Structure to design on (434 residues):
DNA sequence: TAGATTGTTAATCGATTAACAATC
DNA sequence: TAGATTGTTAATCGATTAACAATC
């Protein structure tokens, strides 16, 4: 296997590059050097060049990087070129917010199914998509081509549902439940643990105020 | 300054420890060794001991760690002992979801104000809290003791509002807008960039399917 | 006391930064 | 061609893991 190893650190930075390049593109910037981008993003130019060169050379000596081209290449790497079918598992407050979030369709992520156990929401529509009973989820996954399942159910239901989702053939889970899901290693999981995030903020605030810990990078 | 330096990596792991210890406590576990916890959390026992010892010795040789005590100590470190007053800046889909999220009050984070520019939502209530006009935000911050502002407004409004929030005296921003906020270094910012998170998932899915990159830890 | 397990030092590993030759 | 800036190797820095002495 001759696959190039890409570290978690690099992967974590790619969406941020994509975001900044998208903004530069909006502002009709044609080219940018690693030095200029480094000032904008507050990282080192060296890191930018190292990061990009994990995927091959996108720049040109003496010129820098063509913004449009670089944006496109990083988009390809991130899989934004392909369309993705997403289901929402859980139509509570967070699920509803995701259903209406405009950035996802813009990036090619289409919500094609929403599922919940609550009879009060089943049959209602969220952003034009009908909420179906949770029982029908597996059949729906099998009959449609679902790439990603976003899980927004309560903690204790998440693992069981994740197993059903995986058994039905989904290979990517976007997990908003405050648990670490246990799935096979042919399935990728990305967690959004909002409470963890809030506690990190709380730590940093307490650390700053107390002066007890030096916590910055 | 004799403050102990705590790395970002360690801070990032604290909420996860807190979560696991909370679950152990729910299950009436009295003690746990770093070895047992390491199996549960899928990290090394060595890392657990190193992490805890950043803050002083919480364990006892030959015994391990007392779950209740350790949970309490990490809670203190994370600032969960104190009550926090939070305002929501932006009452759109995500803001509404946050207003109704039950985990936050449970951890001592009280939403005491919600602000929006949209006349359609101003005056309405979210989870019993009235949505106020954005104009009133700064006065509200000054008159109340606000610890944290959660920003869920569109990208282009985030920086301007962040400045107003900071000028009014808030020292912690929980940022859900897809931009990096520019604030002084006496203000802490924690980002929840959901699109970035989705793109990471998309990358990992594409990498796994294509076999082009070896991307796991 | 003997066994278990922490706290902590030392060794290893990986990621970031610096430097510079290659080249547009 | 000369100047600019990349791509890439080497040096540094930081984080993780291993090992073990301290001690409950």
């Amino acid at each position: 296997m001759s696959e190039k190893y890409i570290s978690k650190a690099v992967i974590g930075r790619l969406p941020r590059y994509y975001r900044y390049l998208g903004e530069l593109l909006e502002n009709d910037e044609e080219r940018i050097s690693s030095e200029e981008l480094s000032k904008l993003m507050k990282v080192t130019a060296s890191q930018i060049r190292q990061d990009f060169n994990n995927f091959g050379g996108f720049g040109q000596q003496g010129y820098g990087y063509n913004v449009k081209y670089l944006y496109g290449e990083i988009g390809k790497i991130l899989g934004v070129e392909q369309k993705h079918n997403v289901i929402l598992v859980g139509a509570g407050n967070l699920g509803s917010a995701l259903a209406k979030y405009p950035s996802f369709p813009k990036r090619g992520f289409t919500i094609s199914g929403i599922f919940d156990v609550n009879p009060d929401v089943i049959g209602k529509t969220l952003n034009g998509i009908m909420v179906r009973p949770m029982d029908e989820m597996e059949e729906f996954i099998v009959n449609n081509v679902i790439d990603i399942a976003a899980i927004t159910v309560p903690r204790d239901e998440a693992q069981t549902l994740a197993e059903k989702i995986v058994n039905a053939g989904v290979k990517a889970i976007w997990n908003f439940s405050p648990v670490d899901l246990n799935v096979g290693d042919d399935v990728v999981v990305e967690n959004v643990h909002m409470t963890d995030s809030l506690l990190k903020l709380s730590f940093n605030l307490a650390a700053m105020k107390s002066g007890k810990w030096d916590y910055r990078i």
Notes: The mean pLDDT of chain B is 95. The radius of gyration of chain B is 20 Å. Chain B touches chain A through 68 residues (CB under 8 Å). Residues 33-35, 45, 49-50, 52-53, 57, 59-65 of chain B lie near DNA strand C (CB under 10 Å from a C1').
